[in-house]
Amino acid sequence: MSERDGAQPETPASLGAADKLQLLKLLRLDSAQRESVGPSRRWLLPIAIAATLLLAIGVAVWLLRPAHHAPLRVAVAAAGLAGGRDTAVLQATGYVTARREATVSAQITGTVTDVLIEEGDHVRAGQILAHLDSTAQRAQLEQAQAQYRAAQATLGQTQVQLAQAERDLKRQEGLTARQLTSQQALEDAQTLVATARAQVEVQRKQVELGAAGVQGAQVQFNYATVRAPFDGVVIAKSAQVGEIVSPFSAGGGFTR
Fold first, then answer.
1. Closest Cα to residue 245, out of 137, 100, 119, 115?
2. Were 162 and a residue from 120, 143, 186, 196 both cysteine, which residue would form a disulfide, CB within 3.0 to 4.6 Å?
3. How far from chain centre, in Å, is Cα 192?
4. Cα 62 to Cα 58: distance, rounded to the nearest angstrom
5. pTM, whole model, 2 decimals?
6. SS3 of the chain: helix, strand, coil, percent, to 5
C-alpha cells in the first residue's frame, strides 16, 4: 500500500509481538551465509603475518648493508615548463659501490714500523702506505753491492794483466823474428794472453752476476715499503705498528 492511497506506513511501534519476532528472524544469518563470510576473514591472519615478516626482512637488510658503501642522494630537476609552472624534482636514495677494490698486503714477512694512512684517506697510485722493518733486507742489499764492487775491481785487475800479456807477446814476436829467442818463449807468451782474455771474460760474467744480485736485493728491500696500487680511498686499516704481517697464512695466528 502506498502513501497515495491515504494509509499510514507501519512503524516498529505499531507492530505486534509476532511481527517483531518475524523481523528478528530476518536479521539472522543462516549457516550457508556464515560459511560464505567466514573463509574471507580467516585469510586476514596469514596476510598480516606475511606482511610482518616482509617488514622484518626489509629492516634486517637495511641494518646489515655494507658499512663502506656511502649513501647517495640524487635530485634531478626537470626543465621549467612554459607559463612559469613549478619544475618537477626526482629524488632517489642509494649507495656508491666501488668500481675497483683491492686488499693491499705486504709482499714479505716483517714487523710494521710505520703506518701512514687512516680510514677514509684519499691516496694516489704509488703513495707509501706503511713501512716494515727492513734491517735484514738492507743488510742483504749492502752485501750484494759490496760483491758487485769487488767483481768490478777484479775485472779491472784482469784487464790490466791482459794488457801486459799482450805487450809481452808483441816483444816475443819481435825477438822471435830476429831469432833472438826461442819458439817456446813465444808460445808461452801466447798462452799467457789467451789465459788473461779468458779471465777477463769470466770476470765480466761475475760483474753481471753481481749486478743481478744487487737488483734482486733492491727488490726485496723495496718490499718493506707498502704502496697504493691505484688511486682510491682507504676503507679499512687492518694492521698496526708492532704487528707482524705476512703475505702467507700462518698456522699459529701470530701474523696478519
1. 115
2. 196
3. 62
4. 6
5. 0.57
6. 50, 15, 35
